[in-house]
Specification:
The chain contains 6 helices and 4 strands. The chain is an alpha+beta fold. The protein is globular, with a radius of gyration of 15 Å. It starts with a strand and ends with a helix.
Length: 123
């Protein structure tokens, strides 16, 4: 699981998952890496991540806006509209697909990466 800066599109952190992706994975990545929670989190399963985070660490996430990326929000029927990033004027120009674009650039290396040692993989 990766974190990408929405401003510069650089990879700023990642988490090696032992199980499938879940709100717990995203929570652990964020909570274990930042002393203060980020002001903005864009995630495809935000409706569940928001509940997970605010139930476990409400003070830590009190100033964090958590929204669904534009691609995935279209399929979020029944979710609260507060998760629609297009409702926020300040997010209109934000590229919500930065992580997906990073992975598409790295995808051609997946076979080679599978044969690397963990040290080389991380480098």
């Amino acid at each position: 699981m990766a974190c990408v800066c929405v401003g510069c599109h650089n990879l700023i952190g990642f988490h090696v998952m032992q199980e499938h992706e879940s709100p717990r994975s995203a929570f652990e990545l964020i909570f274990s890496r930042w002393i203060t929670a980020p002001k903005l989190i864009i995630y495809d399963n935000t409706c569940n991540l928001d509940i997970f985070c605010r139930t476990r660490e409400p003070a830590y996430f009190k100033d964090t806006l958590i929204v669904v990326d534009r691609l995935h929000y279209k399929s979020h029927h029944g979710c609260s509209p507060i998760y629609d990033m297009d409702l926020y004027q300040s997010l209109r120009g934000v590229n919500s697909q930065a992580v997906e674009q990073l992975w598409s650039q790295l995808r051609f290396n997946t076979t080679r990466m599978g044969y690397m040692s963990q040290v080389n993989f991380f480098l």
